[in-house]
Structures are given as C-alpha cells and as structure tokens.
Amino acid sequence: MSSVTTKTREPEASFSATSLAKLRHKPWYKSDAFRRLVMCVLLGVLFTIMTGEQAGDDVFYSLNDSLTNWPWLGTWVAVAVGIWALITFHSYLLGNPALSPVHKVIKDATAEVKKVTPVLGRREVKWPLIIALVVVLALLPTWVSGFWNQVMVNEIAVYVLLAIGLNVVVGWAGLLDLGFIAFFAIGAYSAAYWTGKLPVSPPVELTPFLVIPVAVLTCLVAGVLLGAPTLRLRGDYLAIVTLGFHEIIYLLATNADEFTNGPAGVQGVPHPTLDLGFWSYEWTTTDLEQYWWMIMVIAGILIFLFLRLEHSKVGRAWTAIREDEVAAAANGVNTVKYKLMAFAIGASTSGIAGVVMASKVQFVSPASFELMFSVLVLAYVIFGGMGSIWGVMLGTAFLAWLPQILKDYVDEQDRHMYLGAILVIMMIFRPQGLIPSRRRKRELNLAKEGLGDADAMTEPVGGRVS
Amino acid sequence: SDDKDDDASSNPGGGNKPTYTIGFQGGLTGKNAQLGINEANGVKLAIEQANAKGDLPFKLEVKTSDDEASPDKSQSAAQKLIDDGNVVAVVGPAFSGPTKAASPNYAAAKLATLTPSATNPSLTAPANKFTALLRGTPNDNMQGSGMATYYAKKLKLKTVLLIDDKSEYGIGLAAVAKADLEKAGITVKTESIPQGTPDYTAAATTVKNSGADGMIYAGYYQDGAPFAKKLKEAGVSIPMISGDGTNDPEFIKLAGAAADNWYLTCPCADANVEEATKKFAADYKAKFNEPAGTYSAESFDLANMIIEQMKTFGAEKITREALLNKLKAAEYKGLTKSFKFDQNGEYVGGAIFLYQVKAGKIEYLGDIDKLSAA
Amino acid sequence: MNLNEFWDYLIPGISLGALYAVIAIGYTLVYGVLQLINFAHSEVFMVGAFAALLVFTKIEPSNPSGLMSVGLVALGFAVSGLAGAGTAFALEKVAYKPLRVRNAPRLAFLISAIGASFFLTHIAGKLFGRDPKPIPDLFVNKKVFEIFGARVSVLQLIMVGAAIVMMIGLDLLVNRTKMGMGIRAVAQDAETAGLMGVDINKVISRTFVIGGLLGGCAGFLFGLNSQVTYTMGFFPGITAFAAAVLGGIGNIRGAMIGGMVLGIVESFSAWQFGDEWRYVSAFAVLILVLMFRPTGILGERLGRTA
Amino acid sequence: MSNNTVIKQRSAESDTATPVIAVRGVTLRFGGLVCLSDVELTLNRGEILAVIGPNGAGKTSLFNSLTGVYVPQEGSITLNSANGSTHALLGQKTHVVNKLGLARTFQNIRLFGALTALENVKIAAETRQRTGPVSIMLGLPNARRAERASDRRAHNLMEFVGLGDKINELASSLSYGDQRRLEIARALATDPQVLLLDEPAAGTNPTEKLELAELIRHINAELGISVLLIEHDMRLVMSVAHRVTVLNFGKVIASGTTAEVQRDPAVVEAYLGAEMAAEMLDAQAQEEE
Amino acid sequence: MSKAPAANGDASTAKPLLELRDLQVFYGAIQALKGIDVTVREGEIVTLLGANGAGKTTTLRTISGLLTPRAGEIRYGGERIDGVPAHHVVSLGIGQSPEGRRVFPMMTVTDNLLMGAYRFKKVPQSDLDRVFELFPRLKERRSQLAGTLSGGEQQMLAIGRAMMGRPRLLLLDEPSMGLAPLIVAQIFSIIKEINAGGTTVLLVEQNAAQALKLSDRAYVLETGSVLVSGTGEQLLADPRVREAYLGEGAGG
Ligand SMILES: Nc1ncnc2c1ncn2[C@@H]1O[C@H](COP(=O)(O)OP(=O)(O)OP(=O)(O)O)[C@@H](O)[C@H]1O
Ligand SMILES: Nc1ncnc2c1ncn2[C@@H]1O[C@H](COP(=O)(O)OP(=O)(O)OP(=O)(O)O)[C@@H](O)[C@H]1O
Ligand SMILES: CC(C)C[C@H](N)C(=O)O
Ligand SMILES: [Mg+2]
Ligand SMILES: [Mg+2]
C-alpha cells in the first residue's frame, strides 16, 4: 500500500446508533457461549478420534471408523454438549459468577490455603514438614513395586536432577536452552570413558563415584565452551544455537564410532561402589532402592547449594540480567561471567545425572540423548514453574510419571498424544507452572499489566540502549 | 497396555484354569515404533489364536511394555513385566540397545526373554551373563556374511559400496559384511546415510559417482524405499542388496517400480509360499487391518514356541525358571524358520535366504550359500 | 572436487533449500508477529503432506501425464495448502490465543506449542497409521534435464519453481499490500496498530493461515519427494527453524536465504564428508554465522527493534 | 549508623582544574549516519556539567559511548581517577566502565521491575564485593558478611535519596518520580566518581523537578560525585549545572557557563528558540534581583 | 507562528462531541479512574492535566477502546461508544497520538503515515500533502525508517499519523514529552493550527503552562478523579494549579 491514489477520499465514516450498537454487542455467533459450544462439539469429535481405532495400512480406516461410529461419536459429543450446558447455565442462571457454589468452594479453598501458607512458612512447622517429606520419599521405594522403583530412578529421579540443573540456566539466568541433554550425554560418555568401556581407553580407570567430579569438570568446560561464543545471542537465537550444539554432540556420539562405538553404544559401565576402608558398599542391578537413595542424597546436596544461590548476590545478578541486560551491565554486573556461571552450573548438574544414568543402566548409547529429551526437560521445567526448585521438581516428577501411569489406561502408542494435550491445557490454565517462583510470578503479573515481558527473554536483539 | 480384544477370545472352558501372561517388550513409541508394533501384534495374534483353539490347560494373556526403543527406558519397561507374577516369559526386547540395558534385570528375575529381532552379535557374549536371553534370530554376522558371499562368489564383483543407516542394526550388519567382503578380496567403500535423511538425491549421486559395481544397503525399508527411488532416478543400475530390515512388502509399496531388481536377504524362509504363512498373513491383516510387517511372523513364532513349552507343563504350575530352562533346550519349527539356542542363548543354525524384487513382488531365490556355491 | 560433481550436489541442495525456505517463512512470519517459535509448524507441514496423501489415495491416478499431471499437482498444492492453513488457524485458536488473552509468558507459548506438536504428531500416527506411505506418482514423465551436466528432475523444478513463486508472492503481499502493511504494523507494535484500525486478531489469524498455507504446500512437495509419515515434520521443521534464525528471524527474505544456505550446506557436506554429517555441518554453519552476526544474515526486520 | 560510614565522602570542593572525564575527538557512526562527530568534552572533578541539544543530537549516544554500550570509531575517552590513575574508557566493556567509576541512569527508566527496591540497589552494591558462588553455596561466613554489608549499604542509599520508607516495595510499583530516585540510588550503590543522568526529569511535574534538583546538588556537594546531566528542562539545567555543553547533529556547538550558553545565537537558533531564551533570561534577571 | 483565532466564544455553546460520564476503569484490582466526567465540545481544545499516575493516559486509552470501562459511559456525537473495540473506534473519526510516540520503527515515514489512514481503502495524495505541509521535516525524511528519527521527529510523525485518519477528534498524549524547548513550541503551535482546521483536540500534558495557554478548557485529574476544571485562563489563575502544576515563578 505504499502507493497513493489521487482520487478523492472516501466519504467520512458515518455511524449510527444501530451500527454502534452492533459494534458494542457481539452478534450471537460471536458470543462466548456459542463459541464455547462449537469448541465443545469439536472437542467431542476430536476425543472420538483420540479414543478410536489405530489406523494401519489404510489411511482412511480410522477416520471412517471413528466418524461413522455413531454411538461412540454421539456419546462424546453429548458429553461435550453436556459440559457446555453445565458451564453456560451455571453462569447464566446465577447471573453473577461470584454467586456460583463452585466459585465459592474455590474461593474458600484458596482462602484456607492462604491461611495455611504463612503457617507452613514458620520455622517450627516448616522443618518438621520437610523432614517428614524426606522420610516419606526415602521410604517410598520400599512401598512400591519394582516397576515403579525403576521408573522412580531411571525416568523420574534422573530427570529431576536434570531439571534442577536446567532451572538454573532457564529459570534463573533466563537463558533459553534447548540442548541441555547434550551435557547429560557428555556426563554419561565420561562415565563410560573413565570406566574404560569406550573403544578408547582412559589414562586411569575410575569408579563411577570418582567419575562424578571428572564429569562435573568436563561438563563445566563444555558449558563454558558452548556459552562463550553464544553470549551475545538472546532468546530464540540462543535457543537454536543450543539446539544445534545438542545435535552436534548427539551426532558426534553417533558418527564418531572409533571413540564412542556409535549407535551400538557401550555396555558394562559398572555400578558405583563405595569403599570407606572400614565399610564398603556396592550398588547392584537388583537393589533398586539404593539408587533412589543415592540420587536423593545428590539432589539434596544440590538443592542445599542452589537454594542459597537463588537469594544471594548471584541469584539477584541473574535476575537483573534476565530482566534487563544493559541496565545490569551498566550497574557493574559482569554479565558474561554470570551467564557462563549459569551455563557451567547447569551443565555440571546435567553431567552428574549422566554419570548416574550410565552406571544405573550400565549401557550408554546415543538413543538416550535424542533431541526430544532436551525439549522434554525444558517442558518439565516450565511446566513445574521456572525458577522454583520445588516447582520444577514437582513438574518433572509429574510429567515423567504421567506416561508411565498412562500405560495402564490408554494405548501405549498414544501416550504422547495425551502428554501433548495436557501440556497445552496446562499452559492455557496455568501458564506460570505448577509452583512458580515468587520472582517469576511478579514478572508475570507485570507482564499482565503490560509492563515488560513475563520471562524477560524478548529483549530486542542488540538491546535497548537509551 | 493389554489388548482389549483379549477378553473376546477367552476360553470357553470356564473359570478354574490358571491364567498366565506372555509379555512383550519393544519400542511402541519413539523412533521405529512401527517395528515394535509389528512384533507386539504378532505376539497378540499368537495368543489370541492359542486361546481360541481351546486346548490349553491354562488361559493366556498378553502384556506389552513400551521401552520407546531407548535403553534408559528399557529397565523400567522390563521391570513392569518382571513385577507381574503372571508373566512367565517375554517376547522381546525388540532392539539391541534396550536388550543390553534390561537383560541383567531379566537374568536376575530368571524370566526368559526371546528376542525376535535384537541382532547385535555381542548380546550373547558369555561375559555379559545375560542368562535369560534367547535370541530367536540369526545375528548380524550371519546375514552380513551371506550378502558378502553372494557378491563375492556369485556375482564376482570387484568394488562394493557398503551403506549403513547409522542405526544400531545397520552398522552391525555393515560391519560384518565389510569384514567378509574384504576377506573375499573385494574393495569396499563405505558411506553412511542416516535414517530420516531429508532428501536422498545427494546420496544417490554419491552412489552413482562411486564407481562401485555393487551396493549393500544396511538399513530399514522406511529409508531404503525413498533411497531406492532416487537411485532409480539417478539411473543407478548396479546390483543392490539389503537385509531383513528391508525385506518387507512395504518396501515395494513405498518404492514402487524403483524396488525392482533389489536383492533382499533374510534369515527367514519365504513368508508367502507355505499354507500356514498365508493363513498367518490373512489373519494378521484381518485383526490389525494392516499387513504383517517386518518381524511380525518371527514374534508370532516365538510366542508360539513359548506356548508350546508351556503346554508341556500340563497341569503343573509353570514357573519362570522352569520355563526358561525348557526353552533353552527346546526346538521349535515356526512359520519362518526353526528355532533352537546354544548354551549362550545364541540362535543355532540359520540359513540365510535370498530374495529379489521382480515386477513388484518379492520372489524367493533360495538359500544364499547354495546359490553362491552353484 | 571436480566441477561436474559440484553441480551434481548443488542442484539437490537448491531444491532442498527451497523447501526449507518455504517452511522457514512460516516460522518467520509467526515469529515476526507474535515473537513466538511456532514449534508446531512442523506438524502443519506434516498435515499438508497427509492431506495430499489422502486425496491422491482416493483418486488413485493411474499413469498421469501432460495436462492431467499439471492438474494433479495443482490439486495437490490446493489441498495441502488448505489443510496446512486450516491446521495453523486451529492451532492459533486453540494453543496460542487463550494464552495471548491471558498475557502468558512467552515460554508458556513455547511449551504449549511443543504440546500441540506432540499432540498433532501422535494423533496423526493414530489416525493415519504409523508406517510411511507413498504419495502416488503424479507424473509418469520423470524426464530429467541437464544443467552443466547435472541432472535436474521435474520434481526438483517444481520444488524450486513453487518456492520462488510463493516467496515472491509473499514478499509482494507483505511489502506491497494493505494487508501486508497491517501485518508489519502488528509485528512492530500491535497495540498501536490497533489504534490505527488494524484488527489485531484478524491479522494474527491471517499470519498463521499464510504460514500454514506455505507449510502445507512444502509438506506436499516433501511427501512427493520421499514419503509421508506422522513424524516427518520434526527434522525439516528444526532445520527450517534454524534457517529462519540464520537469515534473521522475522525477516522474510532472510528466511529464504537461510533456507537456501542450509540446503546447499547440507548437500555439499553430504558430498564432502558423508550424509551423516549433514546436520552437523548445517548447525556448525549456523553457530558460526550467529557468532559473527548475532541477528542472522539479514537481521530482524518484521519484528520490533529498540 | 550514619551515612558517612557507608557512603564514602569525597572532598566536596569543586576542583575545576582537574578533568575527571576527557572526551577527545570522539566520532561515532552507524553505517552512513554520523551520530557523534569529533566531540570534545571535559568534565571537571566535582562539577555538574549539563549536556543539552535538540532531539537526536547524540546526547544519549554520548552516554552510551562513555559507558561502553557503543564503541565510537574514532577518538579517545579518558577517566582520571581520584587516586591519580587514568584509564582509557573507549572500547571497554560496560561493566568494566562501571567498575572504574562511571554509573548512569537511563532515559527510559530501566529498573529490575520484579525485584524490590532494595534488591535493585543491592545488585549494584554487590558488584563491588568479591564473594564467589562457591562460598555463597556453602554459606561461608564471608558470604554472610558480604550479604549483610550490601544490605546495610543499600538501606543507607535508599535513605539518602529519600526512599527510606519504600524499601520493600516492588520497583515497578513505585511512582514515576520514585523510580527515578531509585535508579539514582542504584547508580550510587556502585560508588561512582561520575554519575551520568539521562533526562532524569522527563515526565515529572514541576514539584518533583524541584526535589530532583535538590537531590542532584546533594549528590554533587555531599558525596563529591561529578555529574554529567542530560536534560531538556532548562529551568532544571540552569538551576543545577555549573557548565553546559551543547550538542547539535553530533557536534559540540557551544560550551560554557549557563549564562554564556543561553546567549549564544547558535544555541538559541538550534535549541532554545527565541521565546525560551528570552524567558530564561527574564527568569535569571528576576533571580539576580 | 500565527495567532489562530480564539474559538472560545462559540465553542462553549457548540454541542458536545465527546462526553465521559462517571467513567470508572480498573487495572485488575487497581482502580485507575474513579468516576470522571469530562466534556469536549465540537471545535475545542481541551487539556487534561495531572501528576504522574493521575489517570490521564488511562482516560485516553479508554476513549480509544484499548481499555473497557467497568462502569460509566462514553458518548461520542451522542452515541455510546464504550466497549467498541479499538480498531473500530478509529473509524468513528477518533485519532490518537499515543504516549511515547509509538511510531512503527521499521517502516518508512510515508508508510507510517499511510498506516494512519489504514481505515480508508484509498488515500488521497492531498492528505499526505497536508501533513507534509504541517511538518516539512517529515517531508524531507519521508523514506527514512521511523525508528531512526529523532525524538522530536517521531513526535511529529505520531501526530501526523493520527491526522491521516482525518479525525474529528484528536487525542494527544503528552506530545511535548522529552522534546527540546524549540520543538515543544513548534508542536504547540501546530496543535493550534490543526484545531483551527476544524479538528477537536483532547490534549494530555505535563507542560501545564503552555497547554493551558492554548486550550479552551481544562480538567485537572488527581488519582483518578477530576479535581478542578474550567477554562484555560481560570486554571492558570487557580492557586492550587499554580502551585502543583506550574511550580514557582511560572511565566504567565
Ligand atoms: N543504534 C543506533 N542505530 C542507528 N542510529 C542510532 C542508534 N542509536 C542512535 N542512533 C541515532 O543517533 C542519533 C542520536 O541519537 P540520541 O539517542 O543520542 O539522541 P539524543 O540526543 O539523546 O536525543 P533525545 O533528546 O531525543 O533523547 C539519532 O538520530 C538516532 O536515530
Ligand atoms: N497497565 C497498567 N497496569 C496496572 N496499573 C496501571 C497500568 N497503567 C497505568 N496503571 C496505573 O493507573 C494509574 C493511572 O495511570 P496513567 O498511566 O493513566 O497515568 P498518567 O496520568 O497518564 O501518568 P503519566 O503522567 O505518568 O503518564 C497509575 O496509578 C498507574 O500506576
Ligand atoms: C530390526 C530391529 C527391530 C532390531 C535390530 N535388529 C536391532 O538389533 O536392534
Ligand atoms: Mg536521549
Ligand atoms: Mg500518561
């Protein structure tokens, strides 16, 4: 439209009472109630498809089957319409949503919770509670089946460690990292290398516990190496670079067969042993609780260390960088140093998780480090509530548990479909995550009022400078 | 999760028969999910048919456990089966990586695992102590050397281009083929064309320009098919051979005319010649509304092998350990081949058969050793 | 390095790059307007391919040639474009708009996008089967042209041609039409655009629709070139996103250049180092470029700056 | 606990002979656009120097060049520290420049909105501490001590700028004028020798402007900090600045005392306009009476 | 600068173009406007004064449909327009130059101006010419990207852009903020000129002295309520106003 005509201008926009009334009040087909109805019906149809038959050879099979399966389709649509009716009449009948009993229940509940929270925060309540929680967690493996024990260690605890690490990078320093699993891989391969299982042999062979500091160091260096050249990048640019870094590490593990044994992976990474001279202990394949306790201890130490960071000089500097990098630098914050620190801390945590995983599974291959897992950890962290250690732990535990429990209820192949749907729904209704950190919540509130960005990651590239 | 149809096929005999479960572990989601699904379906079909026959002294159920083809998900998938006291034997794991991760657990539980498709040679190394693992398929060594033999002895090629797909399966196969080709004095060039390559045109050009007079593709049909198309477009006409990962009707469906003249090997006898296999194919299609795929029949066989051994218990209670021991010693003639294991659980015997695609059909040529000798 | 081989690899690089470019535009457009990585764009691409697959499986063209082929290809574009546009539209309404209304943090959008991506992938797997399926031949005539001794297939010509037409069309649309001006205005300052009389919601919907249209068409071409699977979107999606960033995300011409560069880099690295190093080279180039040009080759354009 | 213990006081006497900052021949270009051209400027120790000029003259860009946000293509910028050392600032990283003793505020307030007012100041104060992440994670005594020190210092500074009662409020919830003060407190927390203020009075009302002028004089006189001030409000400039430098199109067109500058015809034409100039002269005359 | 003929005499009797009645606006739980009444008659310049956070911007944003009032009404030409979405409000002839200028930084000056006329299908060249006549500076820079203009130029562009929509009512939010004294004077004289051309103006200003001199009537807001209102001269003389908004020694 950069061309300009010389014709006379349009007649002055005229408006009448009726046209204005139309503008002020939406027509019925634009009304919320109607839109909700359409949405509900569509959801009903969608749900029919979701619960329908798996298609095979014939691309039309499932489509035909679910859309002509009238009783099933009808049921779901009816349920959807029913829900719609409930919602709509509920608010219509009462006129004022504040009168609704549901509303009242929610309000009362939140009021109760609000009353309880400060009590929980009190020292004499808080510590017993935490201790009780730790005891329950510690006893958990002795109550559940072997399957859940495995899940708790391999799928939940390891990823909780990862999430604690990624939280430092994303939640605190505000660096969007889509390649976090690369460090996990480095950790795991370090374990394989230093225990002499890779095709290339190490100068000395170490036991898994001794590998941990080495892996931490390796990942620290890797984190800095990744961080250093990318520090000028912001938000999404950083995201794609970290993603690229992940792919490069993953493909190196796959392609550099001489060093990593390629896709076949390496086997026989030993279980950890603990030898204190007077007392020694060896982890085994069958003693599942031992791994759980080991990870609890590791996580405990990390939480103990990281919690201090959040409310210290370092945590504040991260927040400052996240919110406004130029202003932070102008006030003397060495942004490079703090960003690298975040990368390094996150990467080392990930490395520890890698060592643990390698010695638990005793097998390392690229298949454990696919890009999807990087995406998933990020989802776990945000789902739980960035910046809040408790939140990310809970979020990770929940999302890692979910596919396992879904195994019992839906077709195993469809689990990711449900996982995806849950992610979307959750983000619609609780975008701040399960337990958001206080600072993040404030940022979110500010964003709601249009003052800045909720995650402070949209700083224009190059930064504002005035 | 358990298959809904199981109840439909429950035995008419009634209540007091014991119920046993046969497990399946494989990747039902994630990369190559279709292969896991093929196998799971084979097992399901075997169990459904066994129940339907009504001559079992027990009732059978199936329990699948998805390991997402990922080693670190494998242990919990295995544990799910181990925990279930009803599970007396397992078909699977499907992939070698997860097999390596979970076998110690199965060994500790003395739960027999009969894998229809984990072909990595090192799995049966005694040092692993994978004492509950029985391999129901010749390992990569055999297929790889079969291909090499055919090229060397029958076609008498000078230079062979060996392509793997960077999957565990592909590189295993390629490594063996490479060794055997070199042993036969053939010059070997290698390339890797990973799974999911976005465009095979460049790869086809590489083949065309390689100057090789024969090609081996160690990979699956999903990638082999588009590759074959591009090879045809590029006008490559040297002999091309691929393994059981490609030996599937889907290969032809996907590649169309480009599949013509490809040689395909398989440790499996021709799935279309015999009556029994035809019936299997029809039943499978009827139940899952897709044709039986790679390893469906092998899984079906292994499940039936387990069932056969279970029958030998008669009214006796079946324990995992006892069943494992019986299976170790057993021999079973299935649709695809005969199954028998050595003391390490390695597949015994195993001729490799050669096929060729002709006019849109996979045609059976014969035992590769015999063909090469001729 | 002989020169013949150079062309042999350049040409597939260009045709692949053209596809990446078309997908990348979808990312860039949405990014420009919403500052959001539409992670589910790769599934829009996949849906486009499936739409074409469905239609052609129904039609079952037998040995089409000449005008018939032209018609079929046109039909393929129409169907896949529509399906892509529809999916993108629905995606915006379901997965993004509710968050937008609530002023959710941007990372929540990212997770919602990832969730939508999972959902679409797996529901497609359920609905259409998880095995790859071929799109039937739309032209028996695979006549191959030669340029500098290198082969160029009809399909490659279609790919590049379609990409060029779409890119030029889009460039004109965004830079020369009133609607394009509305899009640019919303990209730079949505609220003020509203004050000028631009219906922001409509513009956002349209942006998704346009991006989806292109994505769907790309899916069709991609499917035609190889095959259609429910997971087919993931890697082209990632690469195209990298292409968008490489060119300067938010910048339409940048997306085109980025796509081309990555396509060619991939092809050449397949030539020089082997196919397994494709993505390594592509990402290495991406990282190198960003190290020296932190805002991509052309820098941001549609989007806001200071 | 008095201010003196924490806020270092420098000799307040204006030592007009020694320059703290000397900008020599600085030229900054963006592509073809020349933003600063051969700029010469001297800020003497203890002085308040105002930089004025039309919009787009390059004032903010000058600040950005001083603080390392922009790197001019030509010229030199030197800082003469109170301890006698001199540093070349050109091309230094922003946080290094800050460490050397230059602190700034921004034209568009840039506080860390989700942090409390006190935390904003603490962040700046802590950049002068040496505690590392390890001692913090382990909760070592030196880390605790540092934390207490920064807390105390931040409290004092908040008191100093008159925000003593707003310590725990969120920075973003403060009123506009208070946010301006908080930005100044944050800048002071890094213990600067020179404070750069970019339009601190923009968008504030006349009453707040008067208070602000008071604060600037305080900072200058009590803390002995030299101030470089960008401002469009002539009344504020005239009331606090010792000297004025005028930029136009990236060039210095005039420099001198307030009285000299407002009579300069080039300044009147480019910046003040005849009306304003006359008004100001009037006002000054009244004051002198 | 030509003294535009004062419209005071007849404006007071002209019919109201814009009426705000008991307007209440909230940001979440915070009440920003606590029921204000403001009338703007056809052809007037009316100024809203007030300290930071008094609710001036909020008032303008509510009029232009960016915010929806929780109570009260907005009448424009006698008809209620509260609740009409922003992109429709423009088409009623209400143009706004928002706080902080908000030009489209990556568009050229001309494109920015054309954005102002987005509501029209075709834009006559004469409209552009009129703006270029008012702001010759913009004409010089018409193909420059707006983001690279200086603050004053951006302000001119924002006003010019609003003019392109041929508004009957022009809302100006702090047009003098952050501008050099010379430019401030220019902007005020241009506002006068625009008004003389028949456009009604509702002006928000911190620069009370100059704004009051120019306006027919003015309202002083304080924390969301109208504190005083009257003609420009009345308020200039009002001691409360003089003290709070003009500072000591303000010229009159
Ligand atoms: N990053 C940049 N890229 C291109 N041009 C720039 C950049 N930063 C500043 N400029 C240009 O340099 C000139 C000087 O800008 P600057 O912000 O320094 O002006 P100023 O004197 O502070 O004006 P004001 O009083 O309006 O704040 C302007 O024309 C501006 O457009
Ligand atoms: N987006 C928002 N969210 C929450 N509160 C807001 C928002 N915008 C303004 N407010 C609050 O509403 C009140 C009125 O603000 P408004 O911006 O209208 O004031 P103003 O008179 O224009 O002030 P100024 O002179 O600073 O422009 C203030 O208390 C302000 O803090
Ligand atoms: C074909 C596959 C299902 C498994 C493959 N043979 C492997 O060892 O992993
Ligand atoms: Mg400035
Ligand atoms: Mg305002």
Automatic annotation (TrEMBL), chain A:
Compartment annotation: Cell membrane
Transmembrane annotation, as ranges: 33-52, 72-94, 125-144, 156-173, 178-196, 208-228, 235-253, 291-309, 340-357, 389-406, 418-435
Keywords for this protein: Cell membrane, Membrane, Transmembrane, Transmembrane helix
Any Pfam family: BPD_transp_2
Topology of the protein relative to the lipid bilayer: Multi-pass membrane protein
Domain of life: Bacteria
Any single Gene Ontology cellular-component annotation: plasma membrane
GO molecular function: branched-chain amino acid transmembrane transporter activity
PANTHER family: HIGH-AFFINITY BRANCHED-CHAIN AMINO ACID TRANSPORT PROTEIN BRAE (PTHR30482:SF10), HIGH-AFFINITY BRANCHED-CHAIN AMINO ACID TRANSPORT SYSTEM PERMEASE (PTHR30482)
Protein name: Branched-chain amino acid ABC transporter permease
The species this protein was found in: Yinghuangia soli
Automatic annotation (TrEMBL), chain C:
Family: Belongs to the binding-protein-dependent transport system permease family. LivHM subfamily.
Subcellular localization: Cell membrane
Transmembrane portions of the chain: 6-29, 36-56, 68-91, 107-128, 148-174, 203-224, 230-249, 279-299
One Gene Ontology molecular-function label: L-isoleucine transmembrane transporter activity
Domain of life: Bacteria
Native organism: Yinghuangia soli
Full protein name: Branched-chain amino acid ABC transporter permease
Pfam families according to UniProt: BPD_transp_2
GO cellular component, one term: plasma membrane
Record's bilayer topology term: Multi-pass membrane protein
Keywords: Amino-acid transport, Cell inner membrane, Cell membrane, Membrane, Transmembrane, Transmembrane helix, Transport
Example GO BP: L-alanine transport
UniProtKB/TrEMBL annotation, chain D:
GO molecular function: ATP binding; ATP hydrolysis activity
Residues of the ABC transporter domain: 21-274
Pfam families: ABC_tran, BCA_ABC_TP_C
UniProt-listed InterPro entries: AAA+_ATPase (IPR003593), ABC_AA/LPS_Transport (IPR051120), ABC_transporter-like_ATP-bd (IPR003439), ABC_transporter-like_CS (IPR017871), BCA_ABC_TP_C (IPR032823), P-loop_NTPase (IPR027417)
PROSITE patterns on file: ABC_TRANSPORTER_1, ABC_TRANSPORTER_2
PANTHER family xref list: ABC TRANSPORTER ATP-BINDING PROTEIN, CONSERVED COMPONENT OF ABC TRANSPORTER FOR NATURAL AMINO ACIDS-RELATED
GO CC list: plasma membrane
UniProt protein name: ABC transporter ATP-binding protein
SMART domains: AAA
Organism: Yinghuangia soli
Gene3D superfamilies: P-loop containing nucleotide triphosphate hydrolases
UniProt keyword terms in alphabetical order: ATP-binding, Nucleotide-binding, Transport
Automatic annotation (TrEMBL), chain E:
GO biological process: L-amino acid transport
Coiled-coil spans in chain: none
Pfam families attached to this UniProt entry: ABC_tran (PF00005), BCA_ABC_TP_C (PF12399)
GO molecular function, one term: ATP hydrolysis activity
InterPro entries, per the entry: AAA+_ATPase, ABC_branched_ATPase_LivF/BraG, ABC_transporter-like_ATP-bd, ABC_transporter-like_CS, BCA_ABC_TP_C, BCAA_Transport_ATP-bd_LivF, P-loop_NTPase
Keywords tagged on the record: Amino-acid transport, ATP-binding, Nucleotide-binding, Transport
ABC transporter domain: residues covered: 18-248
Tree of life domain: Bacteria
Residue stretches spanning the membrane: none
Membership in a protein family: Belongs to the ABC transporter superfamily.
PANTHER family the record matches: HIGH-AFFINITY BRANCHED-CHAIN AMINO ACID TRANSPORT ATP-BINDING PROTEIN LIVF
The name this protein goes by in its record: ABC transporter ATP-binding protein
